[in-house]
């Protein structure tokens, strides 16, 4: 019975415990605005979030709190949603091909050489722009036409374009001409209107390799010498006929009758009746070897004349030769001596009064007002339209080894042109981008800190001017001072005092006088 037990030794009949409590959270908040504020069918969607807060932390093994934030994909809704900006790399035009850039890497002393050719290098710059067409039309409705301004390079995500490429500068080709032809027959200056008893003999050469810059850089191709008793038509030997022995014999001395054609002053074949007054070529003596006679080869072609004209100290000579093919048998016609195996004749017996037209270099191409209807200007869009112009050059009659003489000394019919039409190079205006946005100011409000007190913007030259096009603007970079705030605001965190340390939840301790825990892990909070 409890009466026999003293009150002081009464055992404790209760103890503190933790009642399990599940985590309790508040209701979900409203969804946040979509992170993406523009429309794009190709780029990833945006996302939006909503959150809740903890009203009851879990205790005593209660159910843990779930995620306090939810996220889902989204796209902007409603009318008037602008298209998303897309970005792409743009490049300037390639610079001129330069060989010295490569040579400078090998030898610094070559830096001032400009007349170089061969393999070279071209450079260009790149920049980032906003490019999608939908955006451009959208900006046009807002009267903002600055989509092509350079932007921060970090906005373009694709690989950057090449800024260098190899190129080739064609090396100059020298004019290469053939040897002179033989002097032609004495002809009137104009066979359409033959006058007087004076004419010209002409000789010509032609261009084998056309030089860089056109045939205007070649030497003269026609030379003329005055002559008497000209004729517009002459006989030309096409080939020598077979050797025919005299008196119907099968061998021995004979003649070779040439096959001829009537030609005009340009060496073109014409009707034979036009050569009725021309001197007909005479047959050539020849030999048909008899059996056991000495056999000789045919004569070689005549060599080139040793001089182009004849004077007091010069006399043109030509030579030809033949050789012994078989020696004669005993009693047959013997071979001639060595002197008879060669022949020499005079050539270019005309005096050294050779004339030719000498033409200067063509001048610059100048716009011709007489054909102005064909001309048009170059639009800013870059559609190149060119104009027709005229070029002129100086032409004068020159006597070889003497100098300029009167124009009547040279045949007018072969006088080079002094005027020719030309195509004016297409005019290219300088094209630059719009200015970029001003850079941000990064002032820190600290006394003496000058970093970020300037902001700048720039634009890029896309195309350099050429052929008289509009010059580039002088200013490509602008800078200005940042607008500093009048008072720099300072901010810091402020906290309340720590609350009392709690060892067990309050609802367990309430109305429990036996709960007197005074130590152990607990929890303090503050706002």
UniProtKB/TrEMBL annotation:
Keyword Glycoprotein attached: yes
Gene3D superfamilies hit by this protein: Thrombospondin type-1 (TSP1) repeat
Keywords: Disulfide bond, Glycoprotein, Signal
Cross-referenced InterPro entries: Spondin/Thrombospondin_T1, TSP1_rpt, TSP1_rpt_sf, TSP1_spondin_dom
Domain Spondin-like TSP1: 23-76, 294-352, 430-488
Chain ranges passing through the membrane: none
The protein, known as: Spondin-like TSP1 domain-containing protein
Source species taxonomy: Eukaryota, Metazoa, Chordata, Craniata, Vertebrata
């Amino acid at each position: 019975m409890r009466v026999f037990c003293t009150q002081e030794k009464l055992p404790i009949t209760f103890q503190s415990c933790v009642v399990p409590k599940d985590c309790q959270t508040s209701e979900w908040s409203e969804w946040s605005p979509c992170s993406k504020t523009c429309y794009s069918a190709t780029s990833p969607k945006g996302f939006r979030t909503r959150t809740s807060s903890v009203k009851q932390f879990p205790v005593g093994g209660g159910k843990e709190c779930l995620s306090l934030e939810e996220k889902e994909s989204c796209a902007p809704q409603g009318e008037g949603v602008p298209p998303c900006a897309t970005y792409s790399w743009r490049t300037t035009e390639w610079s001129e091909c330069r060989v010295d850039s490569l040579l400078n890497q090998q030898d610094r002393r070559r830096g001032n050489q400009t007349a170089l050719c061969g393999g070279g290098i071209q450079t260009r710059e790149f920049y980032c722009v906003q490019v999608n067409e939908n955006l451009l039309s959208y900006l046009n409705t807002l009267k903002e036409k600055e989509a092509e301004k350079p932007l921060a390079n970090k906005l373009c995500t694709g690989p950057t374009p090449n800024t260098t490429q190899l190129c080739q500068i064609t090396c100059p080709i020298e004019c290469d001409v053939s040897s002179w032809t033989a002097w032609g027959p004495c002809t009137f200056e104009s066979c359409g209107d033959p006058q007087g008893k004076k004419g010209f003999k002409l000789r010509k050469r032609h261009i084998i390799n056309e030089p860089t810059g056109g045939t205007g850089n070649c030497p003269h191709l026609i030379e003329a010498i005055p002559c008497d008793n000209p004729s517009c038509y002459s006989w030309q030997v096409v080939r020598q006929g077979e050797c025919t022995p005299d008196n119907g014999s099968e061998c021995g001395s004979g003649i070779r009758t040439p096959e001829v054609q009537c030609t005009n002053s340009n060496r073109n074949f014409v009707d034979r009746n036009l050569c009725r007054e021309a001197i007909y070529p005479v047959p050539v003596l020849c030999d048909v070897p008899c059996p056991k006679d000495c056999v000789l080869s045919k004569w070689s072609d005549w060599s080139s004349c040793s001089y182009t004209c004849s004077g007091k100290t010069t006399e043109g000579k030509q030579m030809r030769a033949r050789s012994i093919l078989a020696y004669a048998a005993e009693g047959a016609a013997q071979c001639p001596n060595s002197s008879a195996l060669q022949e020499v004749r005079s050539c270019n017996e005309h005096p050294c009064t050779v004339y030719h037209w000498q033409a200067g270099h063509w001048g610059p191409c100048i716009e011709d007002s007489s054909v102005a209807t064909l001309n048009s200007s170059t639009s800013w869009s870059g559609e190149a339209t060119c104009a027709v112009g005229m070029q002129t050059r100086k032409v004068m009659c020159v006597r070889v080894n003497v100098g300029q003489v009167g124009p009547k000394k040279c045949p007018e019919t072969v006088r080079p042109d002094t005027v020719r039409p030309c195509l004016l190079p297409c005019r290219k205006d300088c094209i630059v981008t719009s200015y970029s946005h001003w850079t941000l100011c990064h002032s820190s409000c600290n006394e003496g800190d000058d970093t970020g007190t300037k902001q700048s913007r720039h634009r890029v030259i896309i195309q350099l001017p050429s052929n008289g096009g509009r010059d580039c603007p002088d200013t490509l970079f602008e800078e200005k001072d940042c607008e500093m705030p009048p008072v720099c605001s300072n901010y810091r965190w402020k906290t309340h005092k720590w609350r009392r340390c709690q060892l067990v939840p309050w609802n367990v301790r309430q109305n429990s006088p036996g709960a007197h825990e005074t130590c152990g892990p607990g929890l303090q909070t503050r706002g």
